[in-house]
TrEMBL record:
Lineage: Bacteria, Pseudomonadati, Lentisphaerota, Lentisphaeria, Lentisphaerales
Name listed for the protein in its UniProt record: HPF/RaiA family ribosome-associated protein
Organism expressing this protein natively: Candidatus Spyradenecus faecavium
């Protein structure tokens, strides 16, 4: 899995780049179907925005840009949103076959 870290409008330190990379790797460890993660950090005046894009085959999950005064908090909030989207999608994938099986059983009666 690849993790790409980019910054807009400002250079970031190597330590923070490593933090964002580790946060992206955690998403990959928790969800093995994710093929790549891209972390984009944007600085505008005193506000920081983070966007995390996790991609798997034929699907893309985006943690929308979260604005905060702390870039670390913005990255964490965006990662939490991406993880929630992936969990929701995975839960729907498991519920759908069960629902179809229940409907088939009802129709057979």
């Amino acid at each position: 899995m690849t993790v790409e870290v980019n910054a807009r409008h400002k250079n970031i330190s190597e330590a923070f780049r490593d933090y964002a990379r580790q946060r992206g790797e955690k998403i990959g460890e928790a969800f093995p179907m994710v093929e790549s993660v891209r972390v984009v950090m944007d600085f505008q005046n005193k506000l920081c925005a983070a966007e995390i894009i996790a991609q798997r085959k034929d699907e893309m999950f985006v943690g929308t840009a979260n604005t905060d005064t702390s870039m670390r908090a913005a990255v964490d909030m965006a990662a939490a949103k991406v993880e929630a989207q992936i969990r929701k999608k995975r839960a729907k994938a498991y519920v759908e076959p069960a629902r179809k099986a229940a409907q088939a059983a009802e129709a057979a009666k």
